[in-house]
Design a protein that fits this description.
By secondary structure, this protein is mainly α. The chain has one domain. Helices cover 82% and strands 0% of the residues. It is built from 9 helices and no strands. The chain starts with a helix and ends in a 7-residue tail after the last helix. The C terminus is likely disordered.
Length: 204
């Protein structure tokens, strides 16, 4: 692998850096976007228990806010639980607008890598072809090594760019869909909380 990178020339180094960044983002997002980290199981049930037992004090609200993105949204609604429904919904929506960008963290960078990597490979390909034709112009077509080297540089850079771009694009789209699904679930949980606070739903 190292020999292939060296054979591709210095154009492979930006592609290699993109691959390292892409792997780091993919690993971090796979860990961070686990459902247990975003929507802890039975969190709403725990909140209902605090409400029933009149234990929803500042300590519990702080713990809830720091527990997860869903906890931050629920805490925003609970802080305003004594206000009208419109105020509660506004507080929840405001918290949601600040929570979703946290779920999308680094995804813009991952999408940029997916878009840039093929162009980096193409740039290396073009330079490799230029070197090949320059060598042919200087030494003629009698030396097949010049042609082979130029073609090798071109193909290695093309393959490197695609090898980084394809998985980056796949995971970028996967994570975008994952964030959308989690956002929908958090909205549903928040609406259940509003109904509970308004006395329209019993704990289940």
């Amino acid at each position: 692998m190292f020999e292939m990178i060296m054979a591709g020339g210095w154009f492979m180094w930006p592609i290699l850096l993109c691959s390292v960044a892409s792997l780091a983002i993919i690993g971090e997002r796979l860990w961070s976007l686990q459902r247990k980290n975003i929507l802890p199981a039975a969190l709403l049930t725990q909140v209902q228990r605090w409400l029933e037992q009149n234990q929803l004090d500042t300590t519990h609200l702080t713990a809830l806010r720091n527990s997860s993105p869903l906890g931050k949204i629920l805490a925003a609604g609970l802080i305003n639980r004594n206000h009208p429904r419109e105020i509660i919904l506004e507080a929840i929506e405001y918290a949601g607008r600040h929570t979703i960008p946290e779920l999308n963290r680094y995804l813009r960078t991952l999408g940029s890598i997916a878009a840039i990597a093929p162009f980096l490979g193409l740039f290396g390909t073009v330079v490799g072809m230029i070197e090949m034709f320059s060598g042919i112009g200087e030494h003629g077509v009698g030396d097949p090594g010049i042609i082979a080297h130029g073609i090798a540089v071109a193909l290695i850079n093309t393959a490197g760019g695609l090898a980084v771009a394809i998985p980056s694009l796949l995971f970028y789209r996967y994570f975008r869909g994952r964030v959308y699904d989690l956002a929908i679930e958090m909205e549903e949980e928040a609406m259940l909380l509003v109904e509970i606070l308004q006395g329209r739903r019993e704990r289940g």
